[in-house]
Fold this protein.
Amino acid sequence: MDASLPPGLLDALAARLGPRGVSADPADLVPLSTDWRGLFRGRAALLLRPASTEDCAEAVRLCAEAGLAIVPQGGNTSMVGGAVPDASGRQAILSLVRMNRIRALDPLDMTMVAEAGVVLKTAQEAAASAGCLFPLSLGAEGSATIGGVISTNAGGNTTIRYGTARDLLLGLEVVLADGSVIHGLRRLRKDNTGYALRHLFAGAEGTLGIVTAAVLRLFPAPRSEATAFAAVPDEAAALALFRRFREADEGALRAFEYMSGEGVGLVLRHIPGTALPLAAPPGHACLVDLATSRRDADLPAFLEATLAEALAAGEVTDAAIAASAAQRAAMWRLREEHSEAQKREGASVKNDVSVPVSAVPDLIRRAREALSALVPGSRPVAFGHIGDGNIHLNLVQPEGADPAAFLARSEEIMGAVNAIVRDLGGSFSAEHGIGRLKGAMLAEWRGGAELAAMRAIKAALDPKGVLNPGVLLPRGDSAGACC
Ligand code: FAD
Ligand code: MLT
Ligand code: ZN
């Protein structure tokens, strides 16, 4: 047991949560104290695993009373170190993994009530088994949880059609920093009864409350799907192709993703079982994904005809259309394995940025030039959700370079991209949030009245700074007994 734990706290927590609900064993604590990229290595005082909302609330109350800070954690897939404790040894991880029940699913209301620890993929499968669709989809969906995607307001691949996690949220159950509970699991489409508190917790990264369950919107399951992998001559052509599909049938477009040739090359090199469906490696590629619940739709024919028009217009140089579910999945792997392939290639600095959609080609071109000049031999890998104007402008270390020396230049690298993003009227964090990585950027970009309002909200809901101190708001902003 950690000597710095307030006396009596461990016993009180164990009495409430039971033996599976509390651990001070380093074998449990250490793996959960490091983020998946290995960038943030914290030290936790305790691991708490409540199995119910009541237990979660009581655990928070006990910790708050004892002055022990809490770091909520779901699948620990955060890109910005938001789900791991700092190195003080004075923060407890509160994992939601045992709260993993789908409490209800209603195909008439088109809603699902899921606990925070339900894995995203499990939620998708539960919806599908009832003939519905839960559309949120991202590379980490096999590990990320409902509580995590809400708390980061995750975006992902289907945002162009269904919005971010916030847009899929009808109701929320939240444990506040003093252990009280907001019972907001209302399945209502319309509910203008004061402040929409659920939207405050979406994207709050565990700094305002602990999400324990949510009412999520469902949609009709698709009856027809069609997917293509297309080589395009440049970024401007990628955007022109997106526009072509949107104008032809916006309702059919489920996802439209851009990949640079560098990124596709890394996936083919590092991820076993991946293969290029085109004759030659593309300089730039797009994944076009269509889906509809209409009975009369012939999406494969529409996809083929629209690609033929694009080919004639010079927006596409080669394309493959998936002829089976297996081929569709193989095309999606070329996109979804980008993060893992970059990790296997060595250290990389991530820039998850957004600009107005029309500025994307400019952004990619200018950032690539700036980054290549800044770190000679490094590999800029641009990819992502081009239809949202959200591009991941990741920089992979030069081959054979020292990873630590490369990562030591992270701020400089992010600064170079951010300067261009600012010039184009964009945002330094499109979907990954702030976490422990970008607090200083938040202060710089969102200072003045905007930051003051955020501080006031934090102070009102968590005056003692119990919840995730050091995350989102820069250090010193969430002053309180626990920080
Ligand atoms: P965690 O990582 O555990 O936590 C994330 C944050 O939320 C932390 O601040 C944590 O304290 C807080 N939190 C977690 N659970 C709760 C809770 N119940 N209540 C309150 N706070 C909580 N993100 C995108 O938006 N789009 C993408 O396309 C995308 N692709 C990804 C691909 C890969 C391969 C990976 C590894 C990550 C990707 N992400 C993406 C990052 C994304 O933020 C996470 O995948 C996901 O949203 C986090 O879910 P999680 O359960 O892992 O949360
Ligand atoms: C993705 O969309 O795959 C992730 O958000 C990107 C990343 O690894 O930066
Ligand atoms: Zn993304």
